[in-house]
Amino acid sequence: MVNALRQILQATSSDAATLDSVAVQSSSPTQQGAFIDIKNVSHHFAQNHKNGAAESNANLPVLDSVSLQVQPGEFVALLGPSGCGKSTLLRLVAGLEPPSAGHITQEKQPIKQPDPSRIVVFQDPTLFPWRTVRDNVALGLQARKVPKEQYVRVDEALSLVGLTEFASSYPHQLSGGMAQRAALARALVNEPKLLILDEPLGKLDSLTRLTMQGELLKLWQKAGFSVLLVTHDVEEALFLANRVIVFSPRPARTVAELQVDLPYPRHRTDPRFVQLRQQLLRDLGLSDVT
After folding, report:
1. pLDDT number for residue 18
2. What is the pTM of this model?
């Protein structure tokens, strides 16, 4: 994640991307989410092995011919075993590195680098400890040298995530859930077309996580951006997403795709919800788990 942040910060100066791979282009609200097309994407990491004085190079396959689309305004969740390549796919969609093979496009344009229309929210909030909540949220605007009259968007974003009263607080004064809200506000102030979520609720306690799931759902419904979420939580995927993609162990291949045919708001005790949960557990090879 450190390397990803370094790339994003470099993009801030050259491509006007913020800490979350984004920047601000206009003051008008997002009207439509991004259309993302992932075609036959494979990826590997180069590895160096030492055996005494000898060295050899080998490729570690991570993704294997993955194809999927994210429709404008759609919420898509990725499920799969730890280390299978889900987060790697998010990095490729964010433009942090190119795929080893295949193509990824946004609105039919190749994704080659971080872009203001795509935001990454990591598992860690990555707030600067010396900046107040408001200044952390305003980071993208400051990086772009946006006129001060547009800073009202910072207050609007803080209001959306319920942090207005904590605008002058510092990160160490926030709970885990509040810090993650601040990270979401920092993303939302830039009015994204695609929100890329890499287990953003993974480190929260169970009660805070349930609350944040509901808040994230409301933000998505109000703003209309597209979402690509990585999670290990089957119920979280079903509660939030229109569609769930299940990956195999590394190298990741698509083994199942589930259209969640439940209206919002969803209830975990709904018989259909329970049925879909069991189906996903079977797809993950966890049929003995209840």
Report:
1. 34
2. 0.83
